[in-house]
Design a protein that fits this description.
Residues 118-149 are annotated as: Disordered. By secondary structure, the protein is an alpha+beta fold. Helix content is 31%, strand content 23%. The protein has seven helices and nine strands. The chain is globular and about 50 Å long.
Length: 215
């Protein structure tokens, strides 16, 4: 059984569109998130922590809104910015930019305690990225709980949805969906099926499901 680490049942339903029925269940596990400028190290560390907790295959995701004219901000800090500043403030800042292009990005991290064969998709083989993100004075990456530095590799799958920041439109979705326009519609204007088909998470799940079928 694959455990999708999330508090959002909607993510599990989305995953079920790409995986066989009954093969994925939600795992409510509050792992500590590291601070890092990229999504990959955050998802990788979360997958390791979740696997150590569950003892069975786990899938973790980390996602964010990256605004081109703001050098990718809010990026990995999207949830914090939404909670503290709100999406309307992000939209106001972007409205003054010449370049309002943006993208939703999602990285899925999969860990089952085993290694992975070489493939085009990246594999994070240790916590070195997390240690680097800690900066000077932070703890260096050491061995995991079994004493082996590379014992818990994590396979990463990225999904990407391009668009631009616009005035809020639509009643659906959540988070930044009302201000993110893709192909003429905001995510908040799309029905669930349409959004899942083009979303960053859906595209990452599609890549994962194709790989996982042979795992």
């Amino acid at each position: 059984m694959l455990r999708y680490v999330t508090t959002n049942p909607g993510k599990v339903r989305e995953a079920e569109r790409y995986l066989s029925d009954g093969s994925v269940e939600r795992l409510d596990f509050d792992y500590p998130e590291i601070q890092a400028p990229e999504l990959g190290p955050i998802a990788a560390r979360g997958a390791r922590e979740a696997y150590r907790h569950a003892g069975e295959p786990v899938l973790v995701d980390d996602a964010g809104l990256f605004v081109e004219g703001l050098d990718g901000f809010p990026g990995p800090y999207s949830s914090y910015v939404e909670e503290t500043l709100g999406i309307e403030r992000v939209r106001e800042v972007a409205a003054d930019l010449d370049d309002r292009r943006a993208a939703f990005r999602c990285v899925l991290g999969y860990c089952d305690g085993d290694g992975f064969a070489a493939s085009p998709d990246p594999v994070d083989r240790g916590d070195r990225d997390a240690a680097a993100a800690a900066g000077p004075g932070g703890e260096e990456a050491g061995p995991d709980e079994d004493g082996e530095a590379d014992a818990l590799p994590v396979k990463l799958f990225e999904g990407y949805a391009p668009g631009r920041i616009v005035a809020p439109r639509g009643e659906g979705g959540f988070g930044y969906d009302p201000i993110f326009e893709h192909d003429g519609e905001t995510f908040a204007e799309m029905d669930t099926e349409r959004k899942n088909a083009v979303s960053h998470r859906g595209r990452a799940l599609e890549k994962f499901a194709e790989w996982y079928a042979d795992r």
